Amino acid sequence: MDIQESNSYPFDILPALGATASFTSKIDQTKYGHNHSQRMPTGINALSMNLNLNFNSLTDKQAKTLVSFLQKPFYYEPQNWNSDGSFDNVRVLPFMYDPFYPYKRAPFYCPAFKHEKQYFNVNNVSAKFEFAHPSILSNVESNVEYNEKIASKIDISKLGTSAFLTNRDGAMLSLKTSQTIFKPDTYFHYLINSSTPINVPKNGQGLIDLKTFASSSTTMTDVIIWSSINRSSMFLENPQECSYYTGKPMHEDGNLNIRMFDFRPSSSIEITHTPKYLETTASDTYKKYIKYGLNPNLLNLRLNFQGLSDKEVKNALFFLESHLGYKKFGFHLQKDYHIKPDSNSSRTPNRKPYSTFYCPEWSHTFVYKDNHNISALFVECLDY
Amino acid sequence: MSFIPYEDVPLYLAIQGQEGQYVFAESASISVNHSLTTARQLDDQIFSIASYSETGDNIEYDSKSFTANSTFTVLLGPIGGPPKPLATSIYQIPKDTRISFPNGKSLYFRDSITPDGFNYAVRLYSKDSGWSLTKEDAQNGFFEPIFKHVTQSPIVGSLDVSFYVNKGNLPGIFNILGESHSFMSPTIDEGKIHGYLGDFRFSCASLNNFSFSLSPNSISQARASFSLYGSLIKDNSFSADYFNSDLYKQQSIPHGSTSQILGFSSLGLDHPVSFSYSITVENEPQYGIPPTSLYKTNSSEDSLTVPIKIRKKATTISMSLQGDNLDPNILEDGFGGKKAKIDVELHDLSYSSYSPGELKNLVDSEQNTNGLLHTLSCHGSIVSQDLSVSSGGHLMGKIDIVQNVR
Predict the structure, then answer these.
(1) Which end of chain A has fewer CB atoms within 10 angstroms, the N or the C?
(2) Residues A324 and A214 occupy one common structural domain
(3) CB proximity under 8 Å: A 17-46 to B
């Protein structure tokens, strides 16, 4: 195959259905007693992305073009003898690639690929594309607190059948169809209905079509909206389109300072329990088990979120990305695990109607149009 | 509204980039199917009331005494919060859908809701007055919404047609060997076929199977089955003037009286009485996920709905020959199978109802005097031999030959 040399990706060759993007974070963890722990990323490149792509049913010519392109970065090049009296290393250079929805064009390496000749003039090539040097500094996303550098405060009033908005404080807004606007201090929401994206600078004004807002008589002030152009993603195209609840999640013990992952896993779920305990070591054959202490049974959940729409999967992926593989978030376990009302029985102290988790790895599979799966590892941690 | 008779439902097939033709079909059927499944989510039918507060300021559960037909808002989720939205596996909750709570209690949705992932608060009403829900009961509502379906794979279907082979359509539309005359190598034609059945248009099809049989003193029909890709589109303008097409001119079709089978004597047959021929192609549609910049969720004409290419894989010809005898020595050429080389020349009846003067002005396909229309060949190995006889009949031999073309 070392026949053709091509510097650009052969764009007419598209990956087959079932393409997968996997994300893994490298974190350092300090563990304390009673299952308390603290995590931090090992560096700004701690969150990595890999694409697993299959290019199926290629003609011999297409396969030759693709394999040659993937081989080329590794071809031998003479090293330069520098003035220090040593050889310079010759770097393997990444190539620019446009991945599948919802990912953005970015530099990738291809460290491994496989070519299968399936039939006469029918070839399959599978390849692993590794995102070149992703930096967590590229992720700019609002926390639950209002931040005028990332979010905006707007006033909305009715103007005929449309909604008139004033960007009173904050960053330049980038408003697009299907974005969500929450009524301040409530869980009521409106969807932007207009098809034309608009940008509204600070102190600027604009007209939008808010679904159902025109029929209400409400004027809203201090509406927090996150759709600023400063929102930025490491991996996703147009993160401004993503929406979540913009306030602090409301709870009887006080509002939370973390966000809730409000996507539901598939109905078939498996929860493995491996409670911590201490074990005597006095004898190999006779064992005594001793209670561990507080929080003995934190969960490691392998969750599958199936059948997500295009919009949902982008929201979910941006949520996970913005928690960078180590930041905690709230998540509702299935109903059986909610604390029974009026129950005063002893329990795991941290366990509330919701639990807190961090997600060190997840993968996204493009099943078909408007149908995506996410598989994620949620590791329970304490909310403090 | 009326039923459309057979003669008003033409079948038209065309190869990509070429002019098509009407097919003289005795029967044709089209079907497409969509692989859908529900993506059910955890607790998606459970209705849990966290509080009756509209603003969410007070997330604690305070029991409420309901009044008939008065609307109130509830926040969904576990007692104590935080609220949890309705599941997005739900397509719609129709207005007035009942929510059943323990002990025979019920509440109803005031509005029709299409969950979008942010439905933390919903409006309900009760049909009775003077009752309430305990904390425990409020967490255990159950309702029956309409669930959403998601597409698992592209729309595919089939076109099955029983038709009369004529001079024009075999080498073109029913390009049975898939050979291309282009200068590209390898010379395999992977062009898509498009066409209409009546006013229903399909944009991408590929031939899977073609079969043909011949017996004495009869015209012969062929059968073909195509795989269809993508959805059907109704185009009312199509069948308006097909009466002017070649379909209603005289067709030149093969006939058993004049067609010939060649090469049968080496198989021990003296008098072949019938043959059947079929060719099967293994097609593999090539779909591709476009990059984000070109991706459109609702497009019905992109590389996720219509294949970029339909790749041809294994192609096998099977021929069956029946006659008065057979050579039983199936090991004549060793254990690799006895070799056979059979050609069938399809001829029309070679007559014309036109005068010699009129004949000059006709094109080939309009006359029935073309003679040789097409040659079907099978050069392969014998895979089975059958002998049978029954009361009132004769001993008949049957030989099956298989050729792997590609």
Answers:
(1) C
(2) no
(3) 17, 19
| Count of structural domains within chain A | 3
Q: Give pTM, 2 decimals.
A: 0.90
Q: Give the closest-approach CA distance of A249 to chain B in angstroms.
A: 6
CB contact under 8 A, A262 and B85: yes
Chain A residues within 8 A of B39 when measuring between CB atoms: 266, 306-308, 371
> Domain check: are A134 and A30 in the same one?
yes
Per-domain residue ranges of chain B: 6-35+154-404, 46-149
**Substitution target from B34, B35, B42 for chain A, most A beta carbons within 10 A:** B42
Asked if A342 and B152 come within 8 Å (Cβ–Cβ), the reply is: no
Between residues A256 and B214, the one the model is more confident about = A256
The long-range contacts involving B291-300, CB below 8 angstroms and separated by at least 24 positions, are B291/A98, B291/A99, B291/A100, B291/A105, B292/A98, B292/A99, B292/A100, B292/A101, B292/A102, B292/A103, B292/A104, B292/A105, B292/A237, B293/A98, B293/A105, B293/A237, B295/A100, B295/A101, B297/A310, B297/A369, B297/A370, B300/B230, B300/B231
**Has residue A265 got a pLDDT over 50?**
yes
Residues A284 and A190 in one domain: no
Q: What is the pLDDT of residue A20?
A: 98
Tell me if A260 is assigned to some domain.
no
State yes or no: pLDDT of B177 exceeds 70. no
- Per the structure, the complete domain to which residue A311 belongs is given by 277-381
Chain Cα centroid distance, residue B110: 43
Which residues of A fall within a CB distance of 8 Å from B231? none
Question: Nearest-CA neighbor of A265 among A299, A314, A302?
Answer: A302
- The residues with which A330 forms a beta bridge, in sequence order, are A260, A356
Q: What is the pLDDT of residues A100-147, one digit of tens each?
A: 999 999 999 999 999 999 888 899 999 999 999 999 999 998 788 888
> A70-79, A243-252, B215-224, B349-358: which has the minimum mean pLDDT?
B349-358
Token pair in block for residue A99: 């991945």
Q: Has residue A237 been placed in a domain? A: no
Would the CB atoms of B44 and A267 count as touching at under 8 Å?
A: yes
Binned at pLDDT 50, 70 and 90, residue B243 comes out as low
DSSP assignment string, B111-144: S-B---S---EEEEEBSSSSB---HHHHT-EEE-
* Listed residues A110, A138, A166: the one ending a domain: A138
Chain A touched by B34 (CB under 8 Å): no
Considering the domain boundaries, does residue A253 fall inside one?
A: no
In this structure, are residues B313 and A119 in contact, taking their beta carbons and an 8 Å threshold? yes
Q: B375-391: buried (b, 16+ CB within 10 Å) or exposed (e) per residue?
A: ebbbebbbeebeeeeee
Beta-carbon-side half-sphere exposure of residue A241 (alpha carbons within 13 Å): 19
Tell whether the model's pLDDT for residue B365 goes beyond 60: no
A227 and A133 within one domain:
no
Is position A109 within any domain? yes
Q: Residue A209 pLDDT > 90, yes or no?
A: no
> A165 and A112, same structural domain?
no
C-alpha separations of A194 from A191, A215, A272 in Å: 9, 16, 46
* ipTM attached to this prediction: 0.91
Picking from A138, A169, A198, the residue at the C-terminal end of a domain is A138
Average pLDDT over residues A83-111: 92
Give the count of alpha carbons within 13 A of B241, CB side only. 1
**Residue A83 shares a structural domain with residue A128:** yes
Task: Using DSSP, state whether A302 is helix, strand or coil.
Answer: strand
Same domain, A133 and A166: no
Of the partner residues A17, A103, A307, the one whose CB lies closest to the CB of residue B287: A17
Residue A352, judged by CB atoms within 10 A of its CB (0-12, 13-18, 19+), counts as buried
Q: Are residues A85 and A182 in the same domain?
A: no
The dihedral formed by the CA atoms of B321, B326, B329 and B330, expressed in degrees to the nearest 10: 20
